[in-house]
Amino acid sequence: MKFNLADVFETVADSVPERVVLSYEGTNYTYAEMDVLTTQVGHMFAGHGIGLDDHVALFLKNSVEHVTSLLGLIKVRAAPINVNYRYTDAELEYIFENSDSSAIIVELPEHQQAVARLLPKLPLVKSVFVIGDVDDELSATVAGLGDGRTVEIVDFAEHTSASTERDFEPRTGEERYVLYTGGTTGYPKGVVWRHDDFFRKPISGGNPYGDPREDLAEITREVKNFPSIAALIAAPLMHGAASYLLFTFISLGSRLIVERDFNAKQIIENIPRDQTQIILIVGDAMGIPLVEEMEKQKDTTDMSSLFSITSGGAIWSRSVRDRMVAVKPELLMRDNFGASESGNDGEIMMDEKGNLSVPPSDKMMIVDERFNEITTPNEPGLLARIGNVPVGYYKDPEKSARTFPTLPDGRRISVLGDMGYVTEDKHIVFLGRGSQCINSGGEKVYAEEVEAALHGHPAIADALVVPVPDERYGQRVGAVASLKEGADEPSLEEIQVHCRETIAGYKVPRSIVFVDEVKRTPAGKADYRWAKSAAAATAETV
């Protein structure tokens, strides 16, 4: 059968209605309550003309309404569009226009004001759903659009009077789920997933701990036997990794813990309140402040319920993991490898040298630039994901053909630019993104490996590694870093000595710039364009 995500949610809700599905800042919602809420939200959307294949932009921070909007939209077979709420007006205009969004859901006054400034340039937008009070600027803009154009402002609370009946159109599993990438090296791209592929790949067939579910009947049976796990999603819900985790844990009948913002201090403080068992982060950008709070609160906060910390979507260095285990030795650490364009590729393993690898799999291989498989051990190539991959990028057939080709044997693959090689025992070692590879005199240096080494320095809070122009070698390794609170600025020589303990000499930074804050997206992704500018402008070299 083909899975639809709304069918999966409703199946779980019918199976374990009394379980809590969402804990939001101390308030709990059961599966039965959430099903009623999202059914009403779905009817509200349908009542305003939203249905199959319509794109609706979620310009929202984390909230209960963010969750009900996601589920309500997929119930009516529409596609939610994730929007980075820290985007500039130009970036917002791009994503609203590129996604062909016919409606926008918005809450905060400053976000409503941004929508007001952009509405005259967005002729496809017909509705703006507002959570809370409507900002005066938005009202005035809608009233004065002119040219016969009308945009309705809908009070999101309207859903409370909508139907609670699940009388929606039948679903097929062919419906689209569009996930916009973070856009760290350019404008974001809309990755188009079919629901069935989304269920089978990003959310591991509804069961990341074993065999994928075969049908809804198996979900009904197994979810009753699977214990409810309390998993805190630390990332913003607009991040791809967060949406993967949300649907994964819903498929298991588990409890999701969501906070309005990422606040490491509150996350640790609230472990006993929420009985948090798993914390899901996005790499070192969240892991570093989190472990600092764990260290501060180890003698004052009861962390007994916490048994695992899981990361995905960004580099998670050994030094950060070691510090977490030092606080709580029995912690299970899981590092998931994946992307918006490939889903969940499995757990990354780290050896004693810090190499990252994934075990042998028929879902992954190394290919050359013509997509021919490379089987020779230790020969670098491009990482290709096989099978349930996206159908393409929205409105970009050229990039779709390059990234999501079909092999002569009919297999669909996703090739994102990640570099790696096959070992003698068929493991795949991950090198890094080809786009972030530094070529220094013919030696290839992958930024992620150097960043992991820098994150292990006791004075460094965060760091990015970029190529810096060099007259002799073409490029050299440059770094931009921020310091931990109260730490003295180390010299470049001290940094180099530290890095040489874990990486080869040609990989150590030849320059470093210290800044007040390393710029990242709200989800922790690196802003390499900014880092290159900062490193080139003020680099100290030796």
UniProtKB/TrEMBL annotation:
Residues 449-525 form the AMP-binding enzyme C-terminal domain. This is AMP-binding protein. PANTHER family: LONG-CHAIN-FATTY-ACID--COA LIGASE (PTHR43767), NONRIBOSOMAL PEPTIDE SYNTHASE PES1 (EUROFUNG)-RELATED (PTHR43767:SF1). Residues 9-383 form the AMP-dependent synthetase/ligase domain. It comes from Gordonia liuliyuniae. Pfam families: AMP-binding (PF00501), AMP-binding_C (PF13193).
